[in-house]
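I am writing to request your help with a piece of structural work I have in hand. I am sending you one protein, given as its amino acid sequence and as whole-number tokens for its backbone shapes. Kindly check, if you would, that the fold set down in the tokens agrees with what the sequence suggests. You will find the record immediately after this paragraph:
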Amino acid sequence: MSIARICSRAACHKPAVSTLTYVYADSTCVLGPLATYAEPHCYDLCADHADRLTAPNGWEVIRLAPDPAAAGPSSDDLEALANAVREAARPLPPREPGRGAPGAPVEIARRGHLRMLQDPGANSSEG
């Protein structure tokens, strides 16, 4: 199954590049860049269907041009990604049993990104 969104028009299987939204109160169709998330009341259109879009009589079409600077990742995005990777790769300090939050699992082993946790309730003798 593909993650890419396809055109909402029937029998069209081209990739979507624009999102169409209707503003009924203003009798307006807004056609802009592909939305980040698929919304239930919006329509994703391929380039061909977006170019040929017409509105009902009495309606206005507003075409929002995509911002070319927003197309790719910015240096802030790349820095945030690098910081997240560094944080995830940082080893956790070993905890001694009985230290930390009461009832919290205790890490007893680690291999790569996997951790083995000891259930704090497993050693209690209830009942």
Q: What stands out?
A: The longest strand covers residues 18-23. The chain is about 15% helix and 25% strand. Residues 22 and 78 are 35 Å apart (CA to CA).
